[in-house]
Prior knowledge:
This is Bacterioferritin-associated ferredoxin. It is a single chain. The chain is mostly helical. 56% of the residues lie in helices and 7% in strands. It contains 3 helices and 2 strands, in the order ββααα. It has helices spanning 11-19, 25-32, 42-64; strands spanning 2-4, 9-10. α1 runs parallel beside α3. The longest helix has 23 residues, at 42-64.
Amino acid sequence: MYVCLCEGVTDHQIRDAIYEGCCSYRDVRATLGVASQCGKCACLAKQVVRETLSEVHSSQAALTHTASFVAA
């Protein structure tokens, strides 16, 4: 879905920016130009950033908790 109509930015593009290294809303805004015109999209853009960063952190935490195997 389109998040920022002024810049034509979708939620998928925001997620991709985070997967490619953006670590904050500020980074996403600088990279994609979200909320740089009228600003009406800022709340939704921040929500997408928060949700995506939360998912990324959860998946990284799951990777750090590896199962220990004991040879029988």
